[in-house]
Design brief:
By secondary structure, the protein is of the alpha/beta class. The chain is 45% helix and 17% strand. It has 22 helices and 16 strands. The strands form 4 sheets. It has a 6-stranded mixed sheet, sandwiched between helices. The N and C termini lie far apart (43 Å). It binds pyridoxal-5'-phosphate. Pyridoxal-5'-phosphate binds next to helix 12.
Length: 495
Amino acid sequence: MDIKYTSTRDNSVSVPASAAIIKGISKDGGLFVPCSFPKLDKSFDELAKMNYREVAYEVMKLFFTDYSEEELKGCIERAYDTKFDTEEIAPLAEVDRTYYLELYHGATIAFKDMALSILPHLMTVAAKKNNVDKEIVILTATSGDTGKAALAGFADVPGTRIVVFYPKYGVSKVQEKQMVTQKGANVKVIGITGNFDDAQTGVKNIFGDDAFNAELEKKGFCFSSANSINIGRLIPQVAYYVFAYSRLVLEGRISAGDKINFTVPTGNFGNILAGYYAKKIGLPVNKLICASNDNKVLFDFFKTGIYDRNREFILTSSPSMDILISSNLERLIYFSAGADSNKNSELMKSLSATGKYEITSEMKNEMADFVGGFCTQDEVSATIHDIFEKTGYVIDTHTAVASGVYSKYVKETGDNTPNVIVSTASPFKFTRSVIEAIENEKSDKDDFELITRLSKVANISVPAAVSELESAPVLHDTVIDKEEMEKSIASFLGL
Ligand SMILES: *Cc1c(COP(=O)(O)O)cnc(C)c1O
């Protein structure tokens, strides 16, 4: 089945996957979505025998139908290799009667690596297929983890450049150090004096600025996005939901066809949406539990049907989820409105004009697969503490949001469907919050001392991605106002 992609804001758009991957976002400001959903054509018993790369191929071939088998397998081989510190790529740990799908074994020790290690390869193949002769400029806004994972993926990839904007005072020390030490002749890292939403809105505005884009084109450049709105990121994420399920089948924890739940720590709604896509292609998913931190816009939304970003932005111990506009939710809104781009556009207009919209009760019914939950920062610390005390397993603050939400969900509902908690970062990426939670006291030590301490206390070795950081030289120190984003890009590209 040949799958085309349309825009959530204009149903007359129809492009192949490779074109959608190059563009990142549709001209009308909408997101690319598949016009129809393919179905998995392998049984779960067959999938259970496959390794990560093979499962990834079975999933991606369904969506990226204009890539040849050779092209797609090539991308997968180059992405999921020894950059990951485990042969399994995405191991599943059983802890305290639930499962943790560890997606943090890649180059930057957060789950963004799962998609960003393959996106550059998908994109350079796509450029060849579409006869793009321009240099691709990746523009990225990051709440911390995307930035580094995108930099690592695109550094020195021929035919590409990458500019990353991050909130100067809104990321962890380790996250910042990871980014500002990035090597590569084609990379630029810029701090802005605003929050993640400012960075993301700024990037979206630049994509929509026709005059600026025309000028760029004249000089031989074109923009694309590595943000989670790119379907070249979304689709590779579908693979690990299928992989987790097939592991449970392989290990005899479930039988092929049994339903399971997933609990996902959520920010921009990309990860959990991939779980929804997995269900659409035939994965037996019962509930998708959407876990938020104190910025609980999504929890309120699933409860009331009203999305309202007009509220205080709270900096929490899970910074990669400090988001008030969850971009990928637009794709769910679109489907729940019956794939109606007019209806979706209306709501998105309302969001940008008033910061708010309300869905109909029919749309809400369409979203019955999702359950919202949230955890305060105290609950997050208590969760990290308790799991470590009880089992010796260490989780990061983002994973702890999901873990805490899952415990509350079970208490409230009694639902004992097998559950997978999607574990999104290594505890070493957020060491301060993790060790303080475990030891139940604040520390005035510096982050790198705490890393050594966590390694001792938890008896786990420090990942290479972190141990190399301390002595790495800072290569980027630009900090700007959010109004200066366009100007800073022009200067980097020498316009
Ligand atoms: C990005 C990120 C999230 C949120 O994922 P979304 O796809 O944006 O919902 C959660 N945890 C970590 C560690 C992240 O880096």
